[in-house]
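Minutes, structural biology subgroup

Action item carried over from last meeting: produce the C-alpha cell record for Sigma-54-dependent Fis family transcriptional regulator (Rhodocyclus gracilis). EB confirmed the sequence was re-checked against the source entry. Recorded below for completeness.
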Amino acid sequence: MASPDETPRVLVVDDEEIARHNLAHVLAREGFIADCADCGEAALEQLALARYDLVLTDLRMPGVDGMALLRETRRRSPHTEVIVITAHANAGSAVEAMKSGAFYYIEKPFRLPEVRKVVREAAEKVRLKRENATLKAALDDAAGRPQILTNAPAMRQLLTVAAGVAPTDCNVLIVGATGAGKEVLARYVHQHSRRATGPFVAINCGALSEELLANELFGHERGAFTGAAGVKPGLIEAAAGGTLFLDEVTEMTPAMQVKLLRVLQEREFYRLGGTQPIAASVRFLAATNRDPAKRVAEGRFRQDLYFRLNVVTLALPPLAERRGDIPLLALHFLSNFAQRMGKAVAEIAPETFERLLAHDYPGNIRELENLIERGVALAPGASLTPDLLPPGIGCRTPAEKYTETPTETHGAPRIAATPAADDGEGRAASEPTRIAPLAEVERRHILDALEHAGGNRALAARLLGIDRVSLWRKLRRFEEDANGAESADDTPLE
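Output recorded by EB:
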C-alpha cells in the first residue's frame, strides 16, 4: 500500500453539495485522498495550503468559475492536472478548456467508469511528470561530479576508505596505471570533503618543463622574466579554498620536488620574482602511475616529499582485475556517447560483450571508453555488434595456446589458429590433442561466461544467448552431476 505521501490527492470543486460529496466518495473508494471545495475562491485557498495532484471542477460556479480556476491552477502548479466537468457542454467551452490546459472535459450526467478511467490516467501523468522532474533535478545536481560505477568488492572498499579520509583534509596519494581513473577518484575525494564548494584544479606534472611547471603552480610577478608584463596568479592561488590535484607527481624534477616540499611544510609560497609570502590555503592530492616507493629507492623521488604526500595511499586496481565492472562501464559509456552523438544505439550484442570481457585492457577504463565511443560512431543500427570493435579485441583468451601461422587459400594469405610448437611439457605440436566431450565443453563455456560476468547470472545468460531459467537449469544439472560423481567415488566396486 502506498504511503500517504505517494497517494494521489484530489480536490473536488462544485457548488452543488450532493454532486460534490458523491464524487469525492467515489474517488476515495478508488484509493485517492479526496478533499472538497464549494466554490472557486475556496478551492484557491486550499490550493495555497496543500499540494494537489488533480483538480476536478465544475465549469459554471458563482464568483471564480471553473475556467478561471483552471487557468489559476495551471499558473500556480504546472504539475497539477485539471479535469473540467459541466452540465452545460458546448464546443466553444470545450475548446477553450483544452487550450487553457485542461486534461479532460467531461459532460454531465457522466458515467462513473469514465470518470474513474480519466482520473487514473491523469494521476499517472502527474506521477510521471513528478518522477521526471525529480530525475532531472538529480542529474542537474550531479552535473560535473565524478561518477564511479563499480560492483567490484575491492573498489567498493577503496571508495569507503576514500570517503572516510575525504573530510580530514590530509594529503592523499593515488596510485594506479594510466587510464585507471586516478583523476576521477581525486574528484570523488574532493566532492566528499569540506572543500567541495571550492575549486578543483588539476595539473599534469609530467607534461611541463621545470620552468613552465613552476610558473603554472606559483605564478609570477611583473618583470619576473622577459615577457612577464603583469602579475599572474598560479594554480595554488586559483585552488584556494579547494583542492589542487598533482597528477604524475613522481615525474617532477628534483628542484621542483624541493619547492613543492617547502609549500607542504610551510603552507606558503612565493610567486616567481615575488618577495611576499602567500598562504597556500589548499588541500593537496597527488597521483602517479609509477611505484613511488621504488622511485624513492632509485633516488628519483625525495623520501621526505613522499612521506608528506603519502599520508593515505589509495591504490586503484586495473580494469583487468575488476572484470565484473566492464559491462556496467560499457553500458554507461554507450548511453553517454549515443546521446552525445544523437544516435539510437541502445544495446550491446552478447557477442560484443564476450569480446569486451575477454580483452586485457592495457589502457584500462580509458581504453574501454574509446572502444565504446568508436563503436557508437560506426554503428549503423541500434546494437553495438562485434564487427564494430577493432581487430583483435578479445578474440582469444590468455589460456589459449595458439600461434598465428600464414596459410594460403586461393592465393590469398590468411591467419590460421594452430597448436603451439610446444605445450610446455616437452610434447611436440603434432602429438594428437585430446578432444573434450561436448557436455564438458558446454560446462566450461558456461562457467567461463559466469566468471566473465562477475558472477552475474542475468548477464551471463545474455552473453550465452539463453534465458536465465535455462542457465539455472544447466547449473543445477552440473551440480547434480558433480554430486553424483562424488557419490559414485564412495561406492565400492562389485
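Discussion: Residues 205 and 252 are 6 Å apart (CA to CA).
Next step: EB to file the record with the rest of the batch.
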